[in-house]
Amino acid sequence: MMASIDPSNASDAFVRVLRGLLRPLVRTMIARGLTAPVIYALLKRVYVEVAQESFGLDGTPPTDSRIAMLTGVHRKDIRTIRAETDDGTSEARRKSALLATIIGQWMSNPDFTDASGASRPLPRASDDGQSFETLVRSISKDVRPRTVLDELERGGLVTAKEDLLHLNAEAIVGTAAASDKEAFFGANVGDHLAAATENLLADTTPFFERSVFYNQMTPMAVDGVEASARAQAQTMLEDLNRKSSAAHRRDKGKSGPRQRYRLGVYFYREDADTGTDTQGPDKT
Question: Is 4 helix (H, G, I), strand (E, B) or coil?
Fold first, then answer.
């Protein structure tokens, strides 16, 4: 029997927040055939990993006993989890990052775009250096261009026509392959949640995180807002992609620390809650 929640207790109040956050995630899990016991095992693993990475003392990794105290996971399970190897998640992230970087360069690097800034059709290889092979080699020499092309074609991102490779216009908003969609889902939602977590736990709000919310609008009115949001967001993302690409090329090979960033934009709509009429920018 599940314990009752006391809304006056801060921890209980946060549990109520988590319940709302988990609902769309659980919907995804069920749709992907993941049962509760599978997720329980995964959650124990993640608890141990996060405690090990982020909750050491004075620069020293936490002991099994400390992890058990922080997480409630049994020490026997902790020893088993810490002894196991990576489950392939890191490799999936590296693959997604590589494909995204290649697409980003194809859409922004002057060597691979036309006078209007649009991505040019590319030959697989050429002597003048402006080819798909050159594009891939400029980003990574550890992966064969043929392997990358197979992945992009499988995901519906690239189409071969008359001996030229064409980047599909919809590539910037996602991929058709289920495995790639899942990888981008993890990266995009994960970074958004990481930013929100830092903002929640820090004394200040280190990351920009804003949204606009309106209720009780007609579907036609929301259609108009969505169309405007898509156009403005697309323009912003393409502009930042060009600027980031130029900075990446300029600083390539320079010494010093490195960072990564991700900026995401989303739009969500559903039938309104008829009991409220709320509007305005969220103060988050």
Answer: coil
CB 199 within 8 A of CB 207: yes
The one-letter amino acid code at 161 reads: K
pLDDT band at 1 (very low <50, low <70, confident <90, very high): very low
Give the domain range for residue 164.
89-173
The pTM of this model reads 0.69
Contacts of 79 (CB under 8 A, 6+ apart): 64
pLDDT tens digits, one per residue of 212-245: 999 999 999 999 999 999 999 999 998 998 899 8
Q: What percent of the chain has pLDDT over 90?
A: 49
Segment 167-208, tens digit of pLDDT: 986 655 555 566 667 777 888 898 999 999 999 988 888 999
DSSP, residue by residue, 37-93: HHHHHHHHHHHHHHHHHH--BTTBPPPHHHHHHHH---HHHHHHHHHS---SHHHHH
């169309």: which residue's tokens?
227
Question: Cα–chain-centroid distance for residue 209?
Answer: 15
Residue 55, domain member (yes or no): no
Contacts 24+ apart (CB under 8 A), 238-247: 238/107, 238/108, 238/117, 238/172, 241/104, 241/107, 241/108, 242/108, 242/117, 244/104, 244/108, 245/104, 245/105, 245/108, 245/109, 246/108
CATH number of the domain residue 111 falls in? 1.10.10
Domain for residue 206, yes or no? no
| Number of folded domains that form the chain | 1
